[in-house]
Amino acid sequence: MSAYLVCKSEPSPKGDNANSIFWGFLTLLCIPFIVFGIWVFSSPHIPIRIFLLLSLTSFFPLGFFLGWELIVKNLVAGESWVNLIVLPVSSALLTLVFVELFFGSDLRKPDPVQNISAMNSPDRSYWYYARYKENGIERANSYGFVGPEPNPQMPDERVLLIGDSIPAAERHPKNFPTILEEEFNKEFHQEKKLEIINASIAAYSVEQIYLYYSEKLRDLPHNYLIFSFYLDDVNRNLRYRKNNRLYSPDWTEWQQDVYWQCYLCQRLLSLCNVSDHLFLNYRKRNYEDAFPEALRVLEKTRLLANSRGAKFAVLNIPRFTWEGVLPNVDTYQYFEMNKALERWCIGNGVPCYDTLPLLIGKEISTLRRSKTDIHFTYLGHQVVGLALKDFLASLIRPGKTIRGPGEFVSGM
Fold first, then answer.
1. CA–CA gap between residue 213 and residue 207 (Å, rounded)
2. Which of 65, 292, 295, 353 is most buried, by the most CB atoms less than 10 A from its CB?
3. What is the CA radius of gyration of the chain?
4. CA distances in angstroms from 367 to 134, 170, 232, listed in the order given
5. Can you say whether the dihedral through the CA atoms of 5, 6, 7, 11 is positive or negative?
6. Across the strands, what pairs with 134?
7. What whole-number distance in Å separates Cα of residue 271 and Cα of residue 188?
8. 329 CB-near residues (< 8 Å, 6+ apart)
9. Which residues pair with 118 in a beta bridge?
């Protein structure tokens, strides 16, 4: 378009000076169009607002051409192109650079938790914590998850629980694994108490849970392995950390660098509906397409756990995004995949506990943090933790009758 407009423009009767100004302004007006074009065509997903902005920038040269022919050309006759182009543009750019360099870091939203340092595996297929300090207390251990340092001497009964942010709940004073451990030991009064190690890490995919268990946790002894299976994890790609920020491999790294490292760019992109949630929540596959691969990952985890002398079990967490009260399990949006997981567990002799029945008939807003934050409140952790006590007893002592509303599949 810009080439067409330049060809259509007639040489200014005022001489080469006005013609140079026309070329200079036209070039400057094409820069936003080119920049936004690169962003749009490099993106796996195009928000409608940024597409509209791209469309608007493409009309800038046309508007300038009309304005030049009707008004501007006569007004700038005899003026220096340096005064009209170089000085204003240079001043604007220097001002933006000055604001970004001296005020950008102060304007950016700080991390909600300070003194956190995360590291990637050598191939960036998963990440873990090297440091996680809160109130001056180091909460990360040598295995890379948030929690006390595990004793290398394993007790008679140690359960290792792996999963994502649902069981991890780093900022919650008590989550369902800690509630489960307390209630189990309180009821069964063992001489040597059961130990539950919660090695879950937020934002992991199903595959990353397996990779983390197979590599980073390989030297952590345990009798039992419980895989906390959450449907939203099945179609996540292998996220990684950069500058302590979570990055998605579905987007180019430079685009995420622009968003996180340039405050002014981040503000402009936010106006175009581009955010960190867009980067992290973009998925190339839906749940149905990714579910078979997730079952294959479960099988690899089962075989690896058995090779390490551990008994394998699955804890199924539903995606509790519904509003109000769910009347029965059949009305759950992903009920068929719940049944598919149950069939897999039965077919492979894997004990499985489905927490969906625990949530039936309850006001879901009291069990999750908010409409957009799909994580358990303390009440939600209590509901799950108390119910899991009997499942854990049946896992450690086969043949024990399970009580409560949860659905238990023995698989044995």
1. 10
2. 353
3. 29
4. 26, 17, 18
5. positive
6. 137
7. 57
8. 335, 338, 356, 357, 360, 407
9. 129
Of 165-179, 204-218, 309-323, 393-407, least confident by mean pLDDT is 393-407
Token pair for 147: 């929690």
Q: Are the C-beta atoms of 359 and 166 separated by less than 8 Å? A: no
Predicted local distance difference test score (pLDDT) of residue 4: 42
Report d(CA 180, CA 226) in Å as an integer. 13
Which tokens belong to 176? 């369902």
Q: DSSP readout, 276-309? A: HHHHHH--SS-HHHHHHHHHHHHHHHHHHHHHTT
Residue type, 26: L
> Tokens for 230?
């959450």
The label of the residue with tokens 């069981």 reads 167
In the block, tokens 């009707």 appear at: 70
Weakest mean pLDDT among 102-111, 221-230, 335-344, 368-377: 102-111
What dihedral do alpha carbons 77, 79, 82, 88 form, nearest 10°?
-90
On the question of pLDDT at 396 being above 70, the answer is: yes
Q: Tell me what percent of the residues of the chain surpass a pLDDT of 90.
A: 51
Closest to 379 (Cα-Cα) out of 389, 365, 390, 391: 365
Q: N- to C-terminal Cα distance for the chain?
A: 70
CA distances from 322 to 230, 319, 334, 336 (A): 15, 8, 11, 16
CA 216 to chain centre: 21
In degrees and rounded to multiples of 5, residue 337 shows phi and psi of: -75, -30
Q: Is the pTM value of this prediction over 0.90?
A: no
316 phi and psi angles, rounded to 5 deg: -95, 115
54-83 burial by CB neighbour count: b if 16+ within 10 A, else e?
Answer: beebbebbeebbeebeeebbeebeeeebee
Token readout for 19 is 């013609």
What's the confidence (pLDDT) of residue 17?
A: 62
Cβ-contact 317, 166 below 8 angstroms: yes
Q: What is the pLDDT of residues 241-262, one digit of tens each?
A: 998 899 999 999 999 999 998 8
The arrangement of strands across the sheet holding 224-230 comes to: 195-198, 158-162, 224-230, 311-317, 352-354, 407-409
